[in-house]
Amino acid sequence: MFKLKTIWIVTFFVLIANLSFAQEKSFCVNLLTKELYTPPVEKDFQINRPYTPFIKVFLPPKEKATGRAVLICPGGGYGLIGFGNEGIRWAGFYNDMGIAAIVLKYSLPKGNYRIPIADAETALQIVKDSAQSWHINSDDIGIMGFSAGGHLASTIATHTKRELRPKFQILFYPVITMDKTYTNLGSHDNFLGKNADKKLEDLFSNEKQVNKDTPPAFVVLAADDQVVQPANGINYFEALIKNNVYATLHVYPSGNHGWGYSNYYKFNKAILDELTLWLNQIK
After folding, report:
1. What is the pLDDT at residue 50?
2. What is the pLDDT, as a whole number, of residue 17?
3. Which of 80, 157, 207, 240 could form a disulfide with 247 if both were Cys (CB 3.0 to 4.6 A apart)?
4. What pLDDT, on a 0 to 100 scale, did the predictor assign at position 6?
């Protein structure tokens, strides 16, 4: 009995040594070491607690996998990470469609914008490098972001070098601009610092960075958003269509901000249906 137990323990550790471990289950990868990782905590909105940046990977069953993947960037004003409602709770929705869901717990910038951008780019590179073992098409990886995570996602979509640029972007009630007249000031200060240079604010006002090569976009928000002004998403959409980028904008009459994946939000099903339809149009 002891020998049999020992064999199983050894086998288990051999399996987790490979990033293709547990295809039908979730696992985490440390962004610093690029190795499998067990986070000490995975709770929403933990403030001022240091953590290691990582991705949590949810792969659909092999027989259902389409090869598509989405890197999910939760929000939190660049001051915390809404890892649950704007992260891991989306895994089932995507896996049911045969899409891999990869949730990013990025480092908080504390005024150094390079830090979360580097984490997002590292995450994308890990997904691309693991594409074969994870049954992912390296040319069919999109990015999704909520609130400040929407700013990070749109930053990757508009700034990242071509070989890492996502195929599409999905933005929920996103912060887009760093223009102080209508940005979310907390996100601005945490990302760039309170006294950011105007040129830097313009650089990361992503509505100003759209061009014909910007990936297709699905943008959704509520008209009564009191946290991030709707003009963020609306101006981004206008910039996209001016550059002939395939894009859609959905503005719902109520919901304010931060609904994420909530069955209690009355427009939740409508949004999921629209997103499903849109994803099926991206080839």
Report:
1. 79
2. 38
3. 240
4. 37
> How many angstroms separate the most distant Cα atoms in the chain?
69
- Distance between CA atoms of residues 261 and 242, nearest Å: 30
- In this prediction, residue 45 carries a pLDDT of 52
- Joined tokens for residue 281: 């149009």
* CA neighbor of 100 nearest in space, from 66, 77, 126: 66
From 89, 79, 99, select the one nearest 42 (Cα to Cα).
89
Report the amino acid identity of residue 261. Answer: Y
Strands 247-252 and 169-172: unpaired
Residue 5, token pair as written in the block: 């137990």
> Looking at residue 8, what is its pLDDT?
40
* Token pair in block for residue 206: 């992503």
Name the β-bridge partners of 36. 29
Sites in the chain below the pLDDT cut of 50: 1-24
Rounded CA separation 36/17 (Å):
7
